[in-house]
Amino acid sequence: MIRVRLQGRLGNQLFQYAFAMYASSRLKTKCVFEIRAEDGFQLKWFRLRFPYNLLYVSFFYKAYNRYQRFIKTEKSFSALNGKEDWSKTLITDSTSYRGYFQDARFSSGIKSLLQNELSVKKKYADLFYNQYSSFLNGKYAVLHIRLSDYENQKIVINREEADWMLPVLWYHKTLERIDRAKLKLVIVSDDMKKAKELFDDGSDTIYFPPGDTITHFQLILHADVCIISNSSFAWWAAFLNNKPHKKVYAPNNWVGYNLGVEFPKGIMIKEFEWIQ
């Protein structure tokens, strides 16, 4: 049996869940999750498999957490030092893992399984379809811009420091790649007020929909064209988007865009188009 720590926000926990499913499948073993109160369980919107689909229930969550503490593993492996390179790591049974696991080998290797387990629960999907049927009946592009916490965040690689957040110019240049005459444009962000200030051009074909986390996730999930920030939240929504002819534009080198170095290593999948 392996143990995987779920930590961080939604996008991070999706990568951790994917790693757990990949590793347990490859090792033909079971997996338990360690969840701390400061992080909580962020995957409540998805179907998941039993028993993980019950972890959003407070009573079951507490009982499960007590149970997993009694599971003993022989080894532990932690990669939270900013130097994760899972291509050089031997995945073994009876191990406790802690990391972000943002290497696409894990998710791409079991994509069909993940698209099933990480499908949105019916009650959230129904609410979304009822509210946004006008978008879903036609073609649209979605642009996701991460603001708030990214605005003051820095990344350091090989002693070089740069902004975590993408230049706003990157979004405007990437928008030039889509045919605005044929596509409605939807802007989603963790700071919708500022996003509107940055992108509102007065056009009646650009939309700034309100909504919670799972609503914005689904707007990316069902889009024909996705322009995404270097956010794990947006990466997952675009990755799980199963439209056969979707286009996904993402920043080259991901979080390492401003330094010219791919980070985390392995994040750049072939199905996305990586834009400098």
Secondary structural class: alpha/beta
Based on CA atoms alone, the radius of gyration comes out at 19 Å
Strand content: 15-25%
CATH names the topology of the largest domain as: Rossmann fold
Q: Tell me the series of helices and strands, N- to C-terminal.
A: EHEHEEHHHEEEHEHEHEHEE
- Tell me the span between the first and last alpha carbons: 42 Å
* Tally of individual domains: 2
The count of DSSP E runs of length 2 or more, i.e. the number of strands, is 12
Give a structural overview.
By secondary structure, the chain is of the alpha/beta class. The protein has two domains: 2-117; 122-275, 3-Layer(aba) Sandwich (Rossmann fold). The protein has nine helices and twelve strands. The chain has a six-stranded parallel β-sheet, with helices on both faces. It has a four-stranded parallel β-sheet with strand order 2-1-4-3. Strands 6-7 form a two-stranded antiparallel sheet. Helix 1 (10-27) packs across helix 9 (232-240) and helix 8 (213-221) packs across helix 9 (232-240). The N and C termini lie far apart (42 Å). The mean pLDDT is 93.
Task: Offer a few descriptive terms.
four-stranded parallel sheet, six-stranded parallel sheet, alpha/beta, 276 residues, Rossmann fold, 2 domains
How does the SSE layout of this entry go?
Elements (H helix, E strand, L loop, with lengths): L1 E5 L3 H18 L3 E5 L22 H12 L5 E5 L15 E5 L4 H6 L1 H7 L4 H15 L3 E6 L8 E4 L2 E4 L4 H8 L8 E6 L2 H8 L6 E2 L5 H9 L3 E3 L4 H9 L6 E5 L21 E3 L1
Parallel strand pairs: 1-2, 1-4, 3-4, 5-8, 5-10, 8-9, 10-11, 11-12
Antiparallel strand pairs: 6-7
Helix pairs in contact: 1-9, 8-9
